[in-house]
Specification:
Length: about 280
């Protein structure tokens, strides 16, 4: 039987029992997890059909990238600043390469169609589901010690859940804003490492830390979408030429000549300069 190429991914996923939603011509994988739900590593492998090791796990079967922020290992220095997780890229020693492996997948997640899902590990072996995420600004470089103890260049990816949520976060690594991080965040990794070592020596399950109360950042006002853009021709960096056909809340619907119908966040496209009006 001949099938429409555009529907083949859905048929393949449906045949394997996976839950896939189609949104604006894009297939979004639904893991069937609740925000804040705690699962095991083996569950991640079974649900997402990905590998069982590493902090960045690509699955071509579900077209997803699972990223894990594990605070129990102390190698990568991830931090929440102003509601944004600054996530360290892939590579344990030596300078990291943003064009290599899953660093490239995450860096290109604005337009490559890969669904990115975040888990956090605060207690060893317990993976907290934080939902889907998106890049909120361009990746940047930082200096962190590698597994070999030598300083090296790493890539930091500013990401946040979509939509935002109140999932549990390690309060020691949560900062109100960049000023707060500059004031008390520079030595937090060393302090945490000492606490973990002391807890291990005493045989306690985990270190006890009384975190300061950090107020949630106030939500930023959403960008208004001009109603007169419906019907206008646009050019997308990845999808080429198209025409805006509708506005749905904070999302625009675009019919592209090459890839068909897409739904995209208007504010995100404007800030990232992904879309150009013709």
């Amino acid at each position: 039987m001949t099938t429409n190429p555009a529907t083949r991914p859905f048929l393949r996923f449906a045949g394997s029992g996976m839950d896939v939603r189609r949104i604006g011509g894009i297939f979004m994988f639904n893991p069937g997890l609740k925000i804040g739900q705690i699962i095991k590593n083996a569950d991640i492998v079974g649900i997402f059909k990905c590998g069982n090791m590493g902090g960045m796990r690509r699955s071509r079967t579900t077209n997803t990238l699972v990223i894990v922020s594990d605070y129990t290992k102390g190698l990568y220095h991830d931090k929440w600043i102003g509601g944004v997780l600054h996530y360290t890229g892939m590579g344990k020693s030596g300078d990291q390469d943003i064009h290599w492996a899953q660093n490239a997948t995450l860096a290109e997640s604005d337009y490559n169609g890969v669904d990115v899902h975040l888990f956090e590990v605060i207690d060893a072996g317990e993976y907290i589901y934080c939902g889907r995420i998106e890049l909120v600004s361009k990746p940047y470089t930082d200096v962190q010690p590698g597994e070999d103890g030598n300083d090296r260049k790493v890539w930091m990816f500013p990401i946040r859940p979509v939509p935002d949520n109140d999932v549990k976060k390690p309060q020691m690594f949560v900062f109100k804003d960049m000023d707060d991080y500059e004031n008390r965040g520079k030595n937090v990794d060393a302090e945490y490492t000492k606490m973990m070592a002391a807890a291990k020596k005493k045989g306690t399950k985990k270190p006890v830390f009384v975190a300061p109360i950090v107020p949630k950042p106030e939500p930023k006002p959403q960008m208004e979408i001009p109603i007169d853009i419906v019907g206008r021709q646009v050019k997308h960096k990845a999808f080429g030429l198209g025409k805006i056909t509708a506005i749905e809340g904070t999302t625009i619907v675009v019919q592209f000549d090459m890839v068909g119908l897409k739904k995209m966040g208007y504010e995100f496209c404007m800030k990232k300069k992904l879309l150009e009006f013709i």
